[in-house]
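Note to self: keep these together.
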Amino acid sequence: MLLRRFRHIFTTRNCELSVIIAVFAYFSFSPRLVDVPLCPSAYFAAIPCPTCGTTRSVWHIFHGHFRQAWAFNPLGFLVVVIMIRRVAVLSLNDYSISRFLNNDHIGICLFTMFLLVGVLRGVGLL
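Structure:
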């Protein structure tokens, strides 16, 4: 009986939701972002990749510093939208809004936007 209850609590869905909520809590309540190491391309080749600065961008979004977030990396806004979408899909699994958000077309659209913003930032247009 107890094992069955633990299996229900420790589903993949609940574990993923817990991790995302923990990340939200960290980004929301931390007074400063711990030193994030540079990505290998920026460190070794001095060439920033399209996702460089996304972690700092997300941290600034959670603290309401939208201008600084955009300056670090516009992808941060898209990452926050994707994370919120995932939380909605995981927590509202019996509702029609969850089925709508979990639609493959929306996922493909968000992924395409992520790639497009990354490429535009990589070539210096963003």
